[in-house]
Design a protein that fits this description.
The complex is a heterodimer of chains A (about 300) and B (about 350). Chain A is mainly alpha-helical and about 300 residues long. Chain A contains 11 helices and 2 strands; from the N terminus they run ααααββααααααα. Chain A is globular. In chain A, about 50% of the residues are buried. At the A-B interface, α4, α6, α9, α10 and α11 of A face α8, α14 and α16 of B.
Chain lengths: ~300, ~350
């Protein structure tokens, strides 16, 4: 087992982790704010993939991918806003019921995708400029994977900038710190909730474009990543963006490195054991917020 | 008539109707009823932990599967012909000798103990790891989901030991009785009815005991329970272990009725479906769990035989409606509608955002 191979696995882990970042960011944002998990988040990822497929059909050529990213972000955001206003906001303060209700949504969306696009899935051909690889010493890094890492980094820094510098970001942080006080100061917490949910769903739509570049888009493509994305949210700590990113990369690397020693199915078990072991030492996740509250 | 008397009469009538079912149901419907009654044990376990303990497990499929596979391993071993060392699928996968964790279940007593104890102990261990670190709520639900996914993936990938995607099937005898004999089928059905009735009585006793009261107190306000001097962790662990053991028995009985246990029955999606049985019945009602398991599964069977694509839309709607408009489920229809709505919010406590936080990211 030479060091080049191990380095290559680390790189693979980072690129898989980048997908988890994109898939989990939206979950982490709304979980931090509203304490709810949207089980239909994976289906928004899946729809992002189908939107990419349709956009690239409409806009062939080099502009296809940027157009697809834009369309998937807008489409995901709209779906998220719809889901938040019609269902999630009605179940406020009942996170376990929200899990079940949004699972119902995911079943319906999956079956609808199956009826519209077929069960076998559709393929998006990656543009030719993504075919190559960057040679870095003995390592050969495929451009698709570098592109994924780039998109994840852009999504992360874009969100961080938005939250740190914009007015709506200020309101989000205020509601995140103390809902009751923010509301008393005139912040419309309801609108903040909807904005954050829509924003997170937009990121999920972009995650769908990325998945479309890696393989066929099927009605269950979101499901295959979402359970791990849930683990990322748990490992990351309450709604912290930085925690989410660190946790996603950790899980990506742990899963890639464990595949050096065991097969893919056992690596899933290893990853899970890693998360449970980690929570024994830091039950609040990578980045925990100091708090006097009894419950988190 | 006082309410307890009405309930007693209704319960006895339901039991008699269930016991007499072989004489008035077609053999197809009888077989389905047996299967779905077996499934109701899993739903009862969810009533215990979710309805009364406030712990939502999306991983009951794993415990269901552990019970089912332990039983199926025994059945595969007793079905071996003289001279055969391993079941057929092991031969195809070039597994030459029987692993020890298969061999021990050749003993029927070890199998019976394993069906109850293995899922119970696995649940207790998982519960201990998670609850002692005060991890609960959404976190717990998502961890159990990941555990189930890993379990199902392992079952599929370890084909030489588990039968892979197809699972374990082709059983012949149990305790020397030929399984496809008509009287044996009836006996199995009656045994299922009796086990379900005993589980119902035991569950009612448990929920009315001090244990049940403390479990509900933990659900409603864990910190107040702590301040009163109780440690809530053991109560949660025991409740989760009981629910796990019930799911194990449920899986074993289901495997007997259906003649198969496979990863498709224990994976992520079926595990969440188990929750909807309890939700449709009314999450705090044990009798409702039986009604919910029967209602949802009969609806699934009848509807998907007519419009196969339609069932998932309906199931999705059921998930949404059962938490938004009918949080007390079928049991709530009998308890009165106004009361049900008033209690809907109280079903899920401890969800208000933490009141004081010193810093955010």
């Amino acid at each position: 087992m030479d060091s080049t191979f191990l380095l290559g696995q680390v790189f693979n882990g980072l690129s898989v982790g980048s997908i988890y970042i994109l898939a989990a960011l939206g979950l982490a944002l709304s979980f931090g704010l509203m304490r709810v998990i949207n089980m239909a988040h994976g289906e928004i990822v899946m729809l992002g993939g189908y939107i990419a497929f349709l956009t690239i059909k409409l806009v062939p050529g080099p502009l296809g991918i940027p157009a697809a990213v834009l369309a998937a972000a807008v489409g995901g955001g709209l779906l998220g806003a719809l889901l938040e206003t019609t269902l999630v906001s009605r179940l406020a303060e009942r996170p376990l019921d929200t899990l079940l209700a949004t699972w119902g949504v995911s079943l319906i969306v999956q079956q609808a995708a199956r009826d519209i696009f077929g069960a076998t899935g559709v393929s998006v051909t990656a543009p030719s400029w993504m075919d190559g690889a960057v040679e870095l010493g003995p390592l050969s890094l495929p451009l698709t994977r570098l592109f994924i890492i780039l998109i994840a980094a852009m999504a992360l820094s874009g969100l961080a900038l938005l939250l740190k510098t914009s007015r709506i970001g200020l309101l989000v942080r205020a509601a995140n710190q103390d809902r009751a006080t923010a509301s008393a100061m005139g912040v419309s917490v309801r609108q903040v909730d909807m904005f954050v949910f829509a924003l997170g769903s937009a990121v999920a739509g972009v995650a769908g474009v990325v998945l479309a570049l890696l393989g066929p888009v099927t009605p269950t493509v979101g499901q295959s990543y979402i359970v791990t994305a849930f683990l990322v949210v748990i490992l990351g700590g309450l709604g912290s963006i930085a925690g989410c990113a660190i946790a996603a990369l950790m899980i990506g690397v742990v899963s890639a490195m464990s595949q050096v020693f065991v097969d893919a199915s056992f690596s899933q078990v290893v990853t899970l054991l890693f998360v449970i072991a980690f929570l024994q030492f830091r039950p609040h996740g990578v980045i925990s917020i100091r708090s006097r509250a009894l419950d988190e | 008539m006082p309410a307890p008397t009405v309930k007693l009469i209704a319960g006895v009538a339901a039991l008699l109707a269930a016991l007499a079912a072989p004489f008035y149901l077609s053999s197809y419907d009888l077989s389905l009823t047996g299967r779905f009654l077996a499934l109701s044990l899993t739903a009862m376990g969810l009533v215990l932990i979710w309805g009364h303990g406030g712990i939502l497990s999306l991983g009951q499929g794993m415990f269901f599967g552990l019970g089912g596979y332990v039983l199926a391993m025994h059945l595969k071993l007793v079905a071996l012909d003289v001279g055969e060392a391993t079941p057929d699928f092991m031969v195809w996968s070039n597994v030459a000798s029987l692993p020890w964790w298969w061999a021990i279940f050749r003993n029927p007593l070890a199998m019976l103990a394993g069906v109850v104890a293995i899922p119970g102990l696995v649940a207790a261990g998982l519960g201990w790891l998670v609850f002692r670190r005060r991890i609960g709520g959404v976190y717990f639900a998502l961890i159990t989901q990941a555990v189930t996914l890993a379990f199902a993936t392992l079952l599929i990938s370890q084909q030489g030991y588990t039968g892979g995607f197809n699972g374990l099937t082709n059983y012949k005898t149990l305790f020397g009785f030929t399984l496809n004999d008509r009287l044996v089928i009836w006996g199995l059905y009656w045994a299922t009815v009796v086990i379900v009735a005993l589980a119902l009585l035991g569950g009612l006793w448990l929920l009315n005991s001090r244990f049940g009261r403390l479990l509900r107190a933990t659900r409603d306000n864990t910190n107040r329970v702590r301040f009163l001097g109780y440690d809530p962790t053991p109560y949660k662990i025991v409740a989760f272990a009981i629910a796990g053991a019930l799911a194990g028995v449920s899986g074993a009985l289901f495997a007997l009725h259906a003649g198969v246990i496979s990863p498709a029955l224990v994976a992520v999606t079926p595990s969440i479906e188990m929750v909807v049985w309890a939700a449709v019945g009314g999450r705090t009602s044990l009798a409702g769990a039986i009604a919910g398991a029967l209602a949802v599964n009969f609806a699934k069977d009848k509807i998907s035989s007519v419009v196969p694509e339609g069932w998932l839309y309906i199931l999705g709607l059921v998930f949404i409606l059962v938490v938004t408009v009918m949080p007390k489920g079928l049991a709530g229809l009998f308890a009165g509608r106004r009361k049900a709505l008033a209690q809907a919010a109280a079903l899920e406590p401890e969800t208000a955002p933490a009141p004081v936080k010193e810093a955010a990211q």
